[in-house]
Hints:
Helix content is 4%, strand content 38%. The chain has one helix at residues 96-103; strands spanning 16-24, 39-40, 49-50, 61-66, 70-71, 78-79, 83-91, 123-132, 137-151, 162-169, 180-185, 188-189. It has one domain (14-65, 80-189). By secondary structure, the protein is mostly beta strands. The longest helix has 8 residues, at 96-103. The chain has one helix and twelve strands. Strands 1, 3, 4, 7, 8, 9, 10 and 11 form an eight-stranded antiparallel β-sheet that branches.
Amino acid sequence: MTADSQGNDLDAVGIPITGLAAFAPVLAANIIEKNKLGASPLVLPAAYKRLGLYKQDGGPAESREGGDALEFFQKGYSIAGDGTRTVVIGLAEQNPTVQALLEGAEPDVNGVIEVSSSLPNNRFILLVVTKYRNGTEKRRIGVAAITAIEPDQQERGSVEGANVTFTWQEDPLFNSAPFWQWGPAAPATVPSEG
């Protein structure tokens, strides 16, 4: 569908239907190059671990906050402060991959994690993909760290997950950008080799 006489286009509305989040060590080998970020299928390097299912209301929620602005003596002039970009995802699964990421530690030989009161001090490459009903996708990739974990209250018959805040980190691997974003657009099918 194209835009109607008022300039409105229902096919351009982003209605999320599914997505994925995955992470990998901060290594150049784990970067998905810009020319492959919009490919279909999206091929992830082997080091990536998927974070599994989201809660029904736990799809990625992006945030962009600016730091304190620098104001001048003359009214009406200011320079924006350093900003922070985050994404909160309501993770539903309690699998070993999610637990290792949230606790920053692997279980010992007895299957026990010695938990810390502090948030994990780990940085990783984070990939967040959202697929929309109109066939488009939005893909974000960059270096991130966990800056908040809010476990759900346990309720009988409800999914017990955790809302995890990932804060994007500026890193030279991504040209000092918090993250790279491809889309929303329709992925391009890549011809198979051979």
